[in-house]
Amino acid sequence: MKHGLTITQLHNQLVKGELSVEKITRQYLAKIEEKDSDHKIYLTLNEEEALKQAKRVDQKIKAGKKIGPLEGLPVSVKDVLLTKGLRTTCASKILENYIPPYDAKAVADLKKAGSIILGKTNCDEFAMGGSGENSAFGVCVNPIDQTRVPGGSSSGSAVAVAKDLCVFSLGSDTGGSVRLPAAFCGVTGFKPTYGRISRYGLTAMASSLDQVGVIAKNVEDVTEVFSAVANPDEYDGTSSGFAGKNFRRDFDRGIKGLVLAYDKKSIDDSDPIIAEKSQKFLQKWEQNGGKVQATKIPYLGKEAVACYYIIMASEVSSNMARYDGSRFGVIPEKIRKETLRWHEYIAGVRGTLLGKEVKRRIVMGTFCLSSGYYDAYYGKAQQVRSYIQKSLKKIFRQSPLIFTPTSPDLPFKIGERMADPVRMYLADAFTTMANLAGIPAISLPIGEIERENKKLSIGGQLMADAWDEETLLRGAYWAEKMME
């Protein structure tokens, strides 16, 4: 798939004076109005401020001043990241009119780099979902086949990049929410090591799993954006404190001798077409000088999903407690007019304004944390998580990279899995492990398959050890080139 100009291409045209930032910004805004007339991709636009910022960058260029690689580039932000003065809904009715008083750290870093925020993209409500179907404001459809899901929860961000309605986008990834939609939409999605990008201003879903991620047109673009937002933050206690790293440092080394581990079960458990494309990817890796090593990845698949959903739902039940209509959230008119006991009031607000999937996860998490079940569910899941982390450490001592398909499934039809949440959750069978272990992972296109006269995208996932984004991005950069 072709997705428009990359960061480098646009930057070069701006520096040469072939385009003005204002002209580019107006073109993107016009394209959004044309291709997103029902406002399912962008929930809120930032037109006035975007054009003001564009004029400021143009003045800087005319004055002969140097601009940064991201300066003047139109971008989008998933609607779970706070944006000062710009509506942030988390795709939920309970925050429909919320205007944040400050920026998320990653957003502030983008603004500092001179990027122009076009608006906020649609997602599953409070980032809870793997298909993009759980937004309170409607589903944005797959850019390749409009009868299919775009993947979630960063659905709007992936679709916006794929349809060239922004140059790149910031998303969030709790169990694959950047990588899965990237795979379904034919773009590149990256989740760094937990703590590498500050979570300050990222609406909390599951605090020990959440991570800000990047969706872009290729690995080079992902690396450029990542370099701009991977900064220490005094407001985030889990922030790594690393800064100024050259994440493209190893790009020139190629992949000769670079060992790539894979678990055959992840390929065998996937759709036959995905399995075939994955095998071809591994063959090409060897043909281009890399090494391939079969291994056993403990709990990869259904077991990791079970572990993930217990921990995630438990943290969701705690984090969602603040949305009760008194601290955050609106109060429905029918509730406002009644005289209710406190628990009736809370139940009324949350029951009316929260979606089905959010409620399901709150209930599931509350059960897992309840007296008599805490040790049996949450405690055991944390033990499995620790075992996964240790097991992956052992694998990375032998193989710096691990490969799996991004998802065992092709993009499925809209509505096909809504009545079967367990089947829906299994789309995350290979992505949840990176979040449980806190390691970096990236999804990139490794092939296409024609279904109903549409060429659906297939994604492959690479994972690396914690803090080793240099090796991960190096491998992904050359994997992308060899797949071309």
Head-to-tail CA distance between termini: 11 Å
Total beta strand runs: 11
Dominant shape? globular
What's the tally of helices?
17
Give a description of the structure.
40% of the residues lie in helices and 13% in strands. With 484 residues, it is α/β, with parallel strands linked by helices. It has three domains: 7-229, Amidase signature (AS) domain (Amidase signature (AS) enzymes); 251-300 and 391-441 and 448-469, no CATH class; 306-375, no CATH class. Strands 1-3-2-4-6-5-10-11-9-7-8 form an eleven-stranded mixed beta sheet, with helices on both faces. Helix 10 packs across helix 13 (356-369).
Short description:
Helices cover 40% and strands 13% of the residues.
What secondary-structure arrangement, pairings included, does this model have?
Blueprint: H1 7-15, H2 21-35, E1 42-45, H3 47-62, E2 74-78, H4 105-112, E3 116-121, H5 155-162, E4 169-172, H6 179-185, E5 188-191, E6 212-216, H7 219-229, E7 259-262, H8 264-268, H9 272-287, E8 291-294, H10 302-319, H11 333-336, H12 342-353, H13 356-369, H14 375-398, E9 401-405, H15 421-425, H16 432-437, E10 441-451, E11 454-464, H17 469-483
Parallel strand pairs: 2-3, 2-4, 7-8, 7-9
Antiparallel strand pairs: 1-3, 4-6, 5-6, 5-10, 9-11, 10-11
Helix pairs in contact: 2-3, 10-13, 10-14
